[in-house]
Write a structure and sequence with these properties.
This protein is mainly alpha-helical. 85% of the residues lie in helices and 0% in strands.
Length: 538
């Protein structure tokens, strides 16, 4: 069972990574098809949709799988099947209600976003694209429940495959639909973006068909389990859903944090820019921040957070066993791994902002400056996710709500004044301050309730910072040398610059990490085995 669980976890992780990579790279052809005007409009619809979908589904697959796995272990298979049947109905209803709310609130959201007639984007276009994407809400919650059901039976393949298929179908429909509308039918940009946002619904249909196929193939085995049901547990649907909500709630709050910060930008950014006379620049500035740059900044966050969160189950175990020494060791390792991976990545992205932005979206000095300023905030995104997960591990997830609310209040209070003062960089600073406050609360709770000292982490931060500084010197020198004969305004030359600087930077950082034995302390004996296979160690 252990090897099966590890294999399943690997499959699900791989599916998630492939899905995220696809979700990043489709932006390049999409931007080429619809341009800045189209991507801005697309972003206006996707932020509210992401909030709705996060509330409706965040934590549901995990909560359902945890519930079913628990009762399957007790050989009470009928309990999980009963939850599944009733849950399908509940998810269809909640999905349809979510669809209606988003569909009919589209005019209100459109009016909140578009503050001036001089803006490139029009209210009616925002309304149209929000309504187009809202249809996906009918299916996605229903689909997430099925994924959770399979995961509860230690079957990760259906979730992984359906995620990848959903993303592929969505992207193909999105790109093909936008291209046909604009270049075959000679339609408007707003129509092309509406088709692109409706692709979320089409992708969900593709995923659902995959899950139905798995259900058809696996139903005989699942029905056979019911024959071995003990039937000794009686639990009401009310208590079932109460347990599910307790499992899912912390993941919901963590899942909606970033979309809520983006939503605050969406409803305040244009207003502030209009008030300082920058209505014409407002839409594209917002797009550079919340779409183009955000897509890139999330890359190091996703990788570092995923690696760090693999340590959280061990944190939960040591906390339950009241193993203080083991708990503190796990916390030390989690924070150090996070910073070891994230800090050099964001410093490198900030240094290479111009070629990175050019490689993905074409050369744009304004976008470059936004990415350079926004990159360091990635550390805060990663720290918030990990500290919130640790709070769940030590059973203090209630403070996640408090820290998120404080962070959002700071962002909401400071966003307009800072945008008026610093324009786009003001929104970045407000986000950093909001996340910073939320993280400080989480760290205080961890220190208090886990009796944890940050002394070792602080010392390691100094060491990691020193290594990052030396890496920066090497990468910066390489960058300055390369731009003497290569141009960061060219896509292909930018790729050469990025790869060359990355090789030098990773080489320096990796060498320092290995020589200092920090890599061994963080990643264990696996590092020695890898080095031996690569003939880097005798």
């Amino acid at each position: 069972m252990s090897s099966k669980l590890l294999r399943g976890t690997f499959i699900l992780t791989l599916g998630t990574i492939i899905s995220k990579v696809l979700g990043l790279f489709y932006v390049i052809p999409f931007d080429a098809i619809v341009g800045k005007e189209g991507t801005t409009l697309y972003q206006y619809s996707y932020v509210p949709y992401t909030i709705f979908i996060s509330i409706a589904t965040a934590g549901i697959p995990l909560a359902i799988s945890k519930f079913i796995s628990k009762y399957n272990a007790l050989e009470e298979y009928a309990v999980g099947r009963r939850l599944f049947k009733s849950g399908l109905i509940v998810m269809l209803l909640t999905g349809f209600v979510s669809f209606l709310i988003l569909f009919f609130s589209a005019p209100v959201l459109g009016e909140m976003v578009i503050q001036d007639d001089d803006q490139v984007t029009k209210v009616e276009d925002v309304i149209t694209v929000i309504r187009a994407v809202s249809f996906a809400l009918i299916i996605v919650p229903f689909m997430s429940l099925i994924r959770g059901f399979f995961q509860g039976h230690q079957s990760m393949g259906p979730s992984a495959v359906s995620q990848v298929v959903e993303q592929i179908v969505r992207i193909v429909f999105l790109l093909a639909g936008a291209y046909i509308v604009l270049f075959v039918m000679n339609g408007k940009v707003a129509s092309a973006v509406s088709v692109a946002t409706f692709a979320a619904f089409v992708g969900a249909i593709g995923s659902l068909l995959v899950l139905f196929w798995y259900w058809y193939k696996r139903k005989p085995h699942l029905d056979e389990l019911l024959l071995h049901d003990k039937g000794t547990v009686e639990i009401s649907l009310k208590n079932m859903y109460k347990e599910i909500l307790l499992y899912a709630a912390p993941f919901v709050f963590v899942g909606i944090a970033n979309p809520l910060f983006q939503f605050i930008d969406q409803i305040t950014f244009n207003r502030a820019m209009v008030e300082i006379g920058l209505a014409k620049e407002s839409d594209f500035a917002f797009s550079a921040l919340n779409f183009y740059s955000h897509k890139l900044v999330i890359i190091p966050v996703s990788l570092a957070t995923a690696f760090s969160l693999t340590l959280v189950p061990n944190i939960t175990r040591t906390f339950i066993e009241d193993d203080k020494r083991g708990l503190h060791r796990q916390l030390n390792q989690t924070f150090q791994v996070l910073l070891f991976l994230t800090l050099p990545a964001v410093v490198g992205m900030s240094l290479l902002a111009e070629p990175v932005y050019t490689a993905f979206y074409g050369h744009d000095l304004f976008g470059t400056e936004v990415l350079r300023a926004y990159s360091p905030v990635a550390i805060l995104f990663a720290l918030y996710s990990v500290t919130a997960a640790i709070l769940q591990g030590i059973d203090e997830q209630r403070f996640t709500i408090l820290s998120l609310l404080v962070g959002l209040l700071i962002k909401l209070s400071l966003n307009i004044p800072l945008i008026k003062l610093m324009q786009t960089e003001g929104a970045i600073v407000a986000t950093a301050l909001g996340y910073g406050a939320a993280i400080m609360i989480n760290l205080f709770v961890i220190k208090t309730y886990a009796s944890y000292s940050f002394k070792l982490v602080f010392r390691r931060i100094l060491l990691i910072t020193a290594f990052t500084a030396l890496m920066f010197v090497g990468a910066f020198g390489t960058y300055r040398l390369l731009i003497l004969f290569l141009s960061p305004e060219s896509v292909w030359q930018s790729l050469v610059i990025i790869i060359s600087c990355a090789v030098i930077g990773v080489g320096i950082y990796g060498f320092l990490g290995i020589k200092s034995k920090l890599v061994n302390r963080l990643f264990g004996q696996k590092v020695d085995r890898v080095m031996q296979k690569l003939h880097l160690k005798g």
